[in-house]
Amino acid sequence: MTQKYQLMSEFAHAVTSDPELADKLKTDPVGTVNSAAQPQVPDTWVYRMVIGILGIAVLGAIVSGFVNSEHANLVIPLGSTALGALAGLLAPSPVR
Known about the structure:
The chain is mainly α. It folds into two domains: 1-39, no CATH class; 45-90. Helices cover 70% and strands 0% of the residues. It contains five helices and no strands. The chain has helices at residues 8-17, 19-27, 29-36, 45-71, 78-90. Helix 1 crosses helix 2 (19-27) and helix 2 crosses helix 3.
């Protein structure tokens, strides 16, 4: 099976319209569902590294804001940018 499904409704429609897929589902339900499911975002070291760097940038902006607040009225926008990037990376992708 080469078709991958992100939504269960798409998979249910495919089962009702494809008798071969329905037979596979009857004989091996777990294997058929596992092979048809679209994989989630892989948990690789690159994602962990990006999240770590963005987290350090947020913490660095917070700490530097506290340090600079005693010396001058200085605003560093890097913290909000890194926080927005981190939120965008961790947010689930929108469903079609």
